[in-house]
Amino acid sequence: xxxxxxxxxxxxxxxxxxxxxxxxxxxxxxxxxxxxxxxxxxxxxxxxxxxxxxxxxxxxxxxxxxxxxxxxxxxxxxxxxxxxxxxxxxxxxxxxxxxxxxxxxxxxxx
Amino acid sequence: xxxxxxxxxxxxxxxxxxxxxxxxxxxxxxxxxxxxxxxxxxxxxxxxxxxxxxxxxxxxxxxxxxxxxxxxxxxxxxxxxxxxxxxxxxxxxxxxxxxxxxxxxxxxxxxx
Lengths: 110, 112
Description:
The structure holds two protein chains of two kinds. Helix content of chain A is about 0%, strand content about 55%. Chain A has no helices and eleven strands. Chain A is globular. By secondary structure, chain B is mainly β. Chain B has strands at about 5, 10-15, 20-25, 30-35, 45-50, 55, 65-70, 75-80, 85-95, 100-105, 105-110. In chain B, strands 2, 4, 5, 6, 9, 10 and 11 form a seven-stranded mixed sheet that branches. A four-stranded antiparallel sheet of chain B has the order 1-3-8-7, with no helix packed on it. At the A-B interface, strand 4, strand 5 and strand 10 of A face strand 4, strand 5, strand 9 and strand 10 of B.
């Protein structure tokens, strides 16, 4: 099956710093989503981005499908950005089975 | 508030027991998926239901079973609990043709 690798596994930042999280996947995908999991376990969808670039406030994401990777950029980080960021991919598109990476644990210190 | 509600939030069971976890999704979510997330890992797909029928299953044994009801609610049943079943169980709703899954806050199961 498809493999998803995320890096780095852990990241510690000072408030205000910028960061880049990476997701590599082993096969062509029709579905790629970035999620943020807060300390209470809630998974929040950040982006649906099987290709191209999107921005939402301080967050942006880019997926280069031909090279099988996606990047999540966080600018001017805040303590509330802390949590685990997951990349998840699917090969069929639509609301189907997603394969998740192991996540990047982000800690933003005040 | 995501439109997907799970209950209970936490529960403790002993090995060999059975457990039922519940999920209530908003109208328009005609697919429901269940994921298991072990500590320190990403969520793993258990199965998906569409129109009350199982519509895809991950690498989980038959003692993991589910139901989807016409009112957009769903259940995950696990029989003969094992210690390794201790995890956060996540329910996700999706609409027909929708690309984005909406997750509930999860049910944290501890098996002693």
